[in-house]
Amino acid sequence: KAKAMKLKANGQAMPFKQMENIEVFVKFCEAFNVGRVSLFQVVDLFESRNMPVVLNCIQVLGTESQRWGYDGPTIGPKPTEKHVVEFTAEQMAAGKNIIGMQAGTNKC
């Protein structure tokens, strides 16, 4: 969906055109799988009201772009990946005999 979008900025200096440019960027972020909680309102950037939210959105966009295979310069952490660990029955049985240090111990 995001690949089909064209990010064409309007170069006019009129405020409503600048706000349209910001709106196009926010819609692109939404189409690129940036979560709704990470998006910002147009006025947050246009009026410099809530810049931490804007910067967070840009970092999440950087993370999502890495997830989709972009390998150029990025901002934001690397995306998390699913890591499945499978234990055998013997490993599970051996784990039952270990008292973790988180549980505390009275042995020195």
Give descriptors for this structure.
108 residues; mainly alpha; 4 helices; 43% helix; 0% strand
Question: What this model shows, in words?
Answer:
It is built from four helices and no strands. The chain is mainly α. The longest helix has 17 residues.
Strand content: under 5%
Radius of gyration: 23 Å
Q: What is the subunit organization of this protein?
A: single chain
Number of helices: 4
Q: Order of helices and strands, N to C?
A: HHHH
Shape: elongated
Question: Could you tell me the mean pLDDT?
Answer: 84
Described by strand count, sense and barrel closure, the largest sheet is:
none
Unreliably modeled segments: none
> What is the total tally of β strands?
0
Residue share in helix = 40-55%
Structural class: mainly alpha
Terminal CA distance = 60 Å
What is the compact description of this entry?
The chain has 108 residues and is an all-alpha fold. The protein is built from four helices and no strands.
List the helices and strands and how they pair.
Layout lengths: L14 H17 L10 H5 L4 H17 L21 H7 L13
